[in-house]
Structures are given as structure tokens and as C-alpha cells.
Design goal:
Blueprint lengths: L11 H19 L1 H7 L9 E7 L51 E7 H8 L17 E11 L9 H14 L17 E10 L2 E9 L6 H21 L2 E9 L3 E4 L1 H4 L10 H15 L6 E8 L8 H14 L2 E7 L10 H10 L5 E6 L5 H9 L1 H8 L2
Parallel strand pairs: 5-6, 5-8, 8-9, 9-10
Antiparallel strand pairs: 1-2, 3-4, 6-7
């Protein structure tokens, strides 16, 4: 059987629906850079995005229109050296009077941002996520455990009941009248047991440099990364908390709406932001109960006098957290992780997979950065021996 033989099991309408849905997903992934750059979601504006999808048609013969005579093999001959007209730029035709030429069709579908995020985060997860025990960090699971002769009709196990019927009839001597096919004693119902298990709890610290060296375009890149990361993570984990911190030469904790609006000036002292993360961990989030993650966005500039303090704070946070990520944002030029802060993270990383960095200079790079930090397959491959 062919690899897609299951596809033919559906009706024509269901196959068309599956094919259309797959094409829509492909279109979303293909236009992702434009979605990230064009959707005005950070300022609380557009909550939808528009995605062009080509119209799908079934194979069919296209007949000549009345009065048309040309076909395959007809028309003027082409000799070696003849110049052929090239395609119009960007796939568009020059403006002019209306014509009768046939063209393609495409739909422009409008999706909610939440729907896009759900699709894009199907393959993502936080790295190094483990269960933490403590406090109320417990989840209730109902697991299937054995069978019983009584139970709710929705939990009737038909296969098991049929086996019991066969066993009963096989064990009886052959009477003049055949035994009934089913009796109440043959019925078996699946039983569920309640199990308590440690919950997986995670806290994500989002730290952003808002000093004078961070241009408006740099801050927008950082906020875009944080926005899409937070939207996806909240769909993946039942127990996920986010902490938003901004810093210049001092550091402050903000709620989410104010964090995406904050801007500052002055110098850059990265250790103040890192120290603020340590302070909040000590007050509210014990590493024994939570998986802790830090993502720091900055243009990479930092006071040289702060190098030793920042390096020491990073080392302490590495021991407390499951992962530390650095996003180097620079809309003016691609620095390729050659800045002061990038060196601190590179020296800290060594051969460990619990520290990572990624540079972005355009909105089109945002989703690549998200995939770099959160792709499940990548993390599992790095963690394997």
C-alpha cells in the first residue's frame, strides 16, 4: 500500500477538506516572516492576520473559447537568436485596458492571532523541563485500571465483553437450546483510578535592556520575540508563570501590559537586571519547586566596569535555572554575537546546552529565534548522549 493510502479512505468532501487545511498551514508557515513583521499586536491593535492562500482546483480539461484557433504546435516559429519576452516583475502585469486573459485566483484568509500561535507552537516546548514536587504542585490524572461488571455505559469495553461471552458459551455443555449471545454477566466496564502526580511548574523571566543605547527598532525586536514566546508558552503548560523585568542602570519589575510599553534612557548595567532576577527567585520561586528560565534581550552593550559583576551574577543564575538564553537585538547592523554581553554568555556556555544565544536584526528573524530556543527536536537531540 502507498504511504498515503489512509487518505483514500475518506470521502471526496473529507479529502478536499484535509487538502485545503494542509495548504492553509503551508501558507501560514510560508508567510510567517510577514505575519511577524506586519501584525500590529504589540500595541494592542490588530488581533488578526491575513494570509493569502491559492485557490485549489481539481484536474480538468480547459477548452478553447469560441473563435480561438491557436493550440499546441500552432503559431509563429521561433528561430535561434529570437528574443523572448521575460516575465513581468513581481508576478504583476503592467497597467492598461481590461483584457480577456485568464489568470489564477487566490483567497486572502483572516485568522486570529491565537489560532496562528496554536499552529506554530505544535512542535515547541521548554528545554530541560522536569517535574518539581512541593506545595500545591500536584495534578490529578484519571488512569485506566482494570474492569468491573458494573459501570457507566460510556465506559463499556465491547471487545472485553465479547471475549467474556465467548468464554461463557464455550464452557457450557451443548444444550438443546443455544445459550444467549450476551448476558449481563458478560459485560465488562473500564474502571478509572485517580492518581496524584507531581506537577511540572515553570517560571520564565523575561529581562530586557531599555537603556539609551537601545533604539526604538531594537526594543521592538525584543518585545516581538517576548510577545510570540509568551503567547506560545501559555498554550503549552498548565502551570506557567511569567516575570517581566526591565533595566538600565537600575532594574524594575513590571506587569505584562506596562512591560511592552516601557522605554528608558541612560547607561547600561546588566548586573542590576540579573540581580533583580536573583532577588525575585529568592523571594517567590524556590528552584526545588520550579523550573526556572531566563531570556535576556539586549543590544549587547554593557559598562566595562560591570563585567565581573555581570559574569558572577550569570554564573549564579546558571546554577539556579534550567536554561539561560540571550537574544542580541540590533536593527542597524548584524553584530553576530560579538558584543560585551554576548561574550559573557559565550564564556558561560562552554559545552553546556543550558545556555544559548541568538542574534536578530530584522523582524523576519524573530520566528527563527523562537525556533532556536524552543524547538523540541533540537533540545532532545542536544540532550541525548
Amino acid at each position: 500500500m502507498s504511504e498515503n493510502a489512509w487518505y483514500d479512505l475518506f470521502s471526496r468532501g473529507a479529502r478536499d477538506w484535509l487538502r485545503h487545511n494542509e495548504k492553509v498551514r503551508e501558507a501560514v508557515h510560508q508567510h510567517l516572516p510577514e505575519l511577524i513583521a506586519g501584525a500590529d499586536v504589540l500595541e494592542g491593535g490588530a488581533r488578526t492576520v491575513r494570509v493569502p492562500v491559492k485557490m485549489l482546483e481539481h484536474h480538468h480539461f480547459r477548452l478553447l473559447r469560441p473563435g480561438e484557433q491557436e493550440g499546441v504546435g500552432q503559431g509563429g516559429a521561433v528561430k535561434p537568436g529570437d528574443r523572448l519576452a521575460g516575465p513581468h516583475g513581481n508576478g504583476s502585469r503592467p497597467r492598461g485596458p481590461g483584457g480577456r486573459e485568464q489568470g489564477g485566483l487566490e483567497f486572502v484568509l483572516e485568522f486570529k492571532v491565537d489560532e496562528i500561535v496554536d499552529w506554530l507552537w505544535e512542535e515547541m516546548r521548554l528545554p530541560n523541563l522536569q517535574s518539581r514536587i512541593g506545595g500545591s504542585a500536584e495534578e490529578t490524572d484519571w488512569v485506566r485500571e482494570g474492569w468491573d461488571r458494573k459501570g457507566a455505559r460510556s465506559r463499556l469495553d465491547r471487545r472485553r465483553s465479547f471475549r467474556e461471552s465467548i468464554k461463557r458459551r464455550a464452557s457450557q455443555p451443548s444444550p438443546a437450546r443455544a445459550p444467549p449471545t450476551f448476558t449481563d454477566d458478560d459485560l465488562r466496564f473500564r474502571q478509572l483510578s485517580r492518581r496524584e502526580r507531581p506537577a511540572t511548574q515553570a517560571v520564565v523571566f523575561l529581562l530586557m535592556d531599555v537603556s539609551g543605547s537601545m533604539a526604538d527598532a531594537d526594543r521592538k525586536l525584543a518585545k516581538s520575540f517576548f510577545f510570540w514566546a509568551v503567547q506560545g508558552l501559555r498554550r503549552q503548560y498548565r502551570h506557567l508563570e511569567t516575570v517581566f523585568i526591565a533595566h538600565t542602570t537600575e532594574a524594575w519589575e513590571f506587569d505584562e501590559p506596562r512591560f511592552f510599553e516601557v522605554r528608558g534612557d541612560g547607561g547600561t548595567v546588566a548586573s542590576t537586571g540579573l540581580a533583580k532576577v536573583e532577588e525575585i527567585i529568592a523571594e517567590r520561586y524556590s528552584p526545588a519547586r520550579y523550573n526556572l528560565y531566563l531570556f535576556y534581550a539586549s543590544d549587547g552593550d554593557n559598562s566595562l566596569s560591570d563585567r565581573s559583576d555581570a559574569a558572577a551574577a550569570l554564573q549564579r543564575l546558571r546554577e539556579l535555572t534550567s536554561y539561560c538564553g540571550f537574544l542580541e537585538v540590533s536593527a542597524s547592523v548584524q553584530r553576530h554575537l560579538t558584543t560585551e554581553t554576548a561574550r559573557l554568555f559565550r564564556n558561560l556556555a562552554g559545552s553546556s546546552d543550558t545556555v544559548g544565544s541568538f542574534p536578530v536584526s530584522r523582524m523576519e528573524d524573530i520566528w527563527t529565534a523562537v525556533r532556536h530556543f524552543f524547538t523540541r527536536q533540537q533540545r532532545e537531540a542536544e540532550a541525548s548522549p
